[in-house]
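In this section we walk through a basic example: taking a raw amino acid sequence and producing a predicted 3D structure, encoded as discrete structure tokens. The instruction is simple. Fold the sequence below.
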Amino acid sequence: MINKTSEQVRNAPNPSGKGGFGEHPENINVGGRLKNIERYGYWFQYFKDMKYKDFLALADEDKSEWPTAKVDAYNRYRKISHLKEFQEVANRTEGMPRQTVKQEFDDDVTEVKIEIRKNESKPPGN
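The resulting token sequence is shown next.
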């Protein structure tokens, strides 16, 4: 069965011809995500997977034709010197480690009450 609303939207006239991806077909990316060359995470993963000697050889490359995300990721990856910086990059490439939460209750607890109140702020002096 054809949804008339969807069909109408697909065939809607655009007399001005402006808008959408028609003017910039290079930006079409199904799924709505950035292209890999535009993602910092992609470049962090790329540099992480390189052999060390190949990574060192990048220092001599002309970076003027590199995408900005690649330049920024390269500079950040090259300058990692503290554990916090390393953790940040690792979390972006490998994902955050699993966080566990331990909950303990007394055996005496039989009921939990949640109360939601509207915050009625009064003007000063009243």
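Looking at the output, two observations stand out. The first helix runs from residue 4 to 10. Residues 30-94 form one domain. In the next section we compare this with other chains.
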